[in-house]
Specification:
This protein has helices at residues 8-18, 63-66, 100-116, 131-144, and strands at residues 21-29, 32-39, 52-56, 59-62, 81-82, 85-86. With 145 residues, the protein is an alpha+beta fold. The strands form three sheets. A two-stranded antiparallel ribbon has the order 1-2. The protein has a two-stranded antiparallel ribbon with strand order 3-4. Strands 5-6 form a two-stranded antiparallel ribbon. The radius of gyration is 26 Å and the shape is elongated.
């Protein structure tokens, strides 16, 4: 990047200035009302390579001159379904010496308030509750002692 006189900040600034989705509104023409979009964001990932980053000595430096923008995401290899419907799974894993039961109870207590922040079309459901197994294991140890 430095051979072109372009810094990482120049690239970040160029992206933040040019990759915009601006709500414009609607325009009524005759009996029809059209949605007007002003989308400065490229429609394809490869098009990011054509964004100008900076002008150096009268020459425009493009993203392709200092970087190669491409879709680097690995292909999706799994899908999540809950009760037959597509879903998103967020796994919570405890760290260190924290109590599994405390974490699960804390998450369960937060679910109602988190659910209120979501659109009504989304359903927030706890699945895979491991506290049942932990509680059973603790009960078995207490019983055996």
């Amino acid at each position: 990047m430095h051979q072109y006189g372009v810094s990482a900040n120049d690239v970040i600034n160029a992206l933040s200035l040019q990759n915009l989705i601006t709500p414009v509104g609607t325009q009524k023409i005759g009996t029809y009302e059209y949605t007007v979009n002003l989308n400065d964001s490229p429609a394809a990932v490869d098009a990011f390579n054509n964004l100008p980053v900076k002008t150096v000595n009268g020459t425009v430096v493009y993203m392709r001159d200092v970087a190669y923008v491409h879709d680097g995401s690995p292909p999706q290899i799994n899908a999540v379904h809950v009760n037959g419907a597509s879903a998103v799974l967020l796994t919570i894993v405890k760290a260190g010496a924290s109590s599994t039961l405390d974490i699960i109870n804390g998450v369960k207590n937060l679910l109602p308030s988190v659910s209120q922040t979501l659109p009504s079309s989304l359903k927030l459901t706890a699945v895979g509750d491991q506290s049942v197994f932990v509680t059973d294991a603790v009960s078995s140890v207490v019983r055996e002692v």
